[in-house]
Design a protein that fits this description.
The chain has one domain. Helix content is 83%, strand content 0%. The chain is mainly alpha-helical and 300 residues long.
Length: 300
């Protein structure tokens, strides 16, 4: 007989690993998107939507879960929230790519550092998640790290606020609906797929599309946008069901950290003293939080 406490520990660890894998993957994604920087934002999003839908359709068929979509549709509240989540994540993609293409990368970076704090706050307000003293201390250090960057900007750019609020709300919806990960992602992409497909057909008919005109390698990359987009969202959906939203919040700091390292070492971006101080404070917060989680698991 499996001990209940052992099962809880196992599920929580599984959730942490899936969310960790998600943010590790997102951290290295800039390398992939750099290969498609000559393609406009809207067209890239349309590709992400369409190929992601096909990806999850295949997975649904393989797992014999297509009928489960009909079951979810009977629950109007869950179905409506899931459709809304699809539009939220699509808008998030659009703003992110828009920011990259208009040279506002620093604003997206700031948004990624605010993102975890938004997740923690949402978890406390809507899901009544509570912190112990160590977790509160780690949260304070993380906030100080973000504050350093805000002071450097001398303002709070709108992109830096909209991105984390959107993704924080997306994570909250995943917790509230608690649907099967593949089913929820299939519904999300299905809701926005007609728009994506319609735009792609328009670009190909008007000869401004890049699917078959830029060579086989770019065609492969465009098709792979579905996999690159879907896999981490799938992992996130699995992990989000098993751990607290506040825990997800702190794991999110990994992604911008990896992206910064890639930017400095591969693309020669400047790493200023302000960023070093910010990283140091956030790093202390993460260490304290991980230690708090470890102690919490031992006490189960």
């Amino acid at each position: 007989m499996i001990d209940k406490n052992d099962f809880v520990k196992s599920e929580k660890l599984k959730g942490v690993l899936f969310v960790l894998l998600t943010y590790l993957f997102w951290g290295v994604q800039p390398i992939f998107w750099k290969q498609l920087k000559h393609i406009d934002s809207i067209q890239l999003i349309a590709h992400r939507i369409f190929w992601s839908f096909l990806f999850f359709l295949v997975i649904l068929k393989y797992q014999n879960k297509i009928s489960e979509i009909k079951e979810v549709m009977k629950d109007k509240k869950k179905f409506g929230l899931t459709v809304f989540a699809g539009y939220l994540i699509s808008a998030n993609w659009f703003i992110y790519i828009y920011a990259i293409n208009t040279n506002r990368i620093l604003e997206t970076s700031l948004g990624y550092y605010i993102n975890p704090i938004i997740s923690v706050i949402l978890g406390m307000i809507f899901l009544k998640e509570k912190f112990n003293k160590n977790q509160i201390l780690s949260f304070i250090f993380a906030c100080l790290g973000v504050l350093v960057i805000i002071v450097k900007f001398k303002a709070l750019p709108w992109i830096a606020m909209v991105l984390p609020v959107m993704f924080g709300a997306y994570g909250l919806i995943k917790k509230l609906t608690n649907l099967d990960p593949v089913v929820s992602m299939a519904i999300e992409t299905m809701a926005i797929m007609p728009i994506g497909l319609g735009y792609l057909l328009f670009t190909e008919i008007t000869n401004v599309g890049h699917l078959f005109s830029d060579g086989p390698l770019i065609t492969f990359y465009l098709i792979m946008t579905g996999v690159v987009t879907s896999l981490p969202l799938w992992w996130f959906a699995i992990g989000a069901r098993k751990i607290k939203l506040s825990s997800i919040g702190f794991i999110q700091f990994i992604s911008p950290t990896i992206s910064l390292i890639i930017g400095v070492l591969i693309y020669n971006e400047t790493f200023e003293i302000t960023q070093m101080i910010s990283f140091g404070l956030i790093g202390i917060g993460i260490i304290i939080y991980i230690n708090a989680m470890y102690k919490e698991n031992r006490s189960l």
